[in-house]
Amino acid sequence: MSAGGKRVRVVTMGCSKNRVDSEHLLMQLAAAGWEISPEEDSLVDAGVDVLIINTCGFILDAKEESVDAILEAVEDKKRGIIRRLYVMGCLSQRYRDELPAEIPEVDGWFGAFSTDPLLKALGVIPDPSLRTRRYLTTPRHYAYLKISEGCDRKCSYCAIPGIRGPHVSVPEEKLLEEADALARSGVKELIVIAQDTTFYGLDLYGERRLGRLLAGLTAIPGIEWIRLLYSYPAGFPRDVLDIMASSPRMCRYLDIPLQHSEDPVLRAMRRSIDGRGTRELVESLRREVPGIVLRTTMMVGHPGEGEKEFDDLLSFVQQYRFERLGAFAYSEEEGTWGAQNLKNIVPEKVKQERLDELMELQAAISLKYNESRIGSIERVLVDAVGSDGRSFSGRTSLEAPEVDGEVLVERADGQPLPVPGSFVKVRVTGADEYDLNAVLLDIE
């Protein structure tokens, strides 16, 4: 343990939105004199006094992972590896009445919006001047910017509105202040996130202001890349495409979870868009932002998806050839509209077979796309240097961190080794369905 009893570690589960919450918490703790223990270090040797687990409670797998992490930490507390254990985030927000009784060894349970009460439990008075400051847990050259909280959508399968509440935008001036502080700390890539980024501004300004916000972010000195994630397809603000097509700082990359392509399933999902609208949107994205890379998510096995709907989904994916595509099987979540109202549940075995078939198709599409880039000259942001001292990894503007593949680069004898956060020019020499191989040409 630390001599002063003020060494803390925050373990973040789930999505990047949780990571932003953890980073705001850590900044308050660091400013109050707490020593921050890196999440990746061995807990046994770290001398941690307080462990905080920021949980995810979205779907079954995520909930189980969070519970397992809590139970493991309880054992660490019993063994004297940590002194105190606190839990925050979505899982404790969703099950705040059940969890304290089931796991009494936890010293305190705090919900998704309880940063200030948690700080006070640690003897820290929250500092309002630090509300737009972060203690980064990502590599220092990229950071996430959460522009809103909650969601007003009514998708049948999603528990987020019940956990996080209605959509609430962060005021534009606060986001620009936070982004400027990140840039001055060395951040070069800003990744804009929310449960639904396209809704930004409606509650505060009576209109969608995502395009205007992005324009403001592109004007901040030091930010080289701005990447947009988690955009809902229904009512997509088209001015976003204008700035994406015109600004060299906007990555021509969009994460837009479509979930499905066929009308019966989209209606059952309550997605507020039909198959025709989905196809028109994808075509306009390709047309208005030439060279755009689209990342999407599909769900298989939702009630209402028969063999025909699944076969048509495969045809849709084959036709539109998304550069990045993830998929998951429908999971009935208590408290959701689907759990209360939908029948005709697809058997688990069928769901898994469909998931495997879809991802096999996507693997072939991804491989073809990556192979088409062999021979190209690419600008790469270096993320990490290999232990061999010869190789390093990074990403182009067409790959997001943590979810997409990497560019794996070899340097020749005599070439300098770039540092993480620097930009380099490479030539792509090989590809598989996930990663690119390349050789170093020059360091900027």
Short précis:
The chain is an alpha/beta fold.
Topology:
Blueprint: E1 7-12, H1 16-31, E2 35-36, E3 50-55, H2 60-78, E4 84-89, H3 90-94, H4 99-102, E5 108-109, H5 115-121, E6 142-146, E7 148-149, H6 160-164, E8 168-169, H7 172-184, E9 189-193, H8 202-205, H9 210-218, E10 225-228, H10 239-246, E11 250-255, H11 263-269, H12 275-288, E12 293-300, H13 307-320, E13 324-329, H14 337-341, H15 348-371, E14 377-385, E15 391-395, E16 407-410, E17 423-431, E18 436-443
Parallel strand pairs: 1-2, 1-3, 3-4, 4-5, 6-9, 9-10, 10-11, 11-12, 12-13, 16-18
Antiparallel strand pairs: 7-8, 14-15, 14-17, 15-16, 17-18
In words, what does this structure look like?
The protein has 15 helices and 18 strands. The longest helix has 24 residues, at 348-371. It has a six-stranded parallel beta sheet with strand order 6-9-10-11-12-13. The chain has a five-stranded parallel beta sheet with strand order 2-1-3-4-5, with helices on both faces. The protein has a five-stranded mixed β-barrel with strand order 14-15-16-18-17. It is of the alpha/beta class and 444 residues long. Helix 9 (210-218) runs parallel beside helix 10 (239-246). Helix 2 links the parallel strand 3 and strand 4 (84-89). It has helices spanning 16-31, 60-78, 90-94, 99-102, 115-121, 160-164, 172-184, 202-205, 210-218, 239-246, 263-269, 275-288, 307-320, 337-341, 348-371; strands spanning 7-12, 35-36, 50-55, 84-89, 108-109, 142-146, 148-149, 168-169, 189-193, 225-228, 250-255, 293-300, 324-329, 377-385, 391-395, 407-410, 423-431, 436-443. Helices cover 35% and strands 21% of the residues.
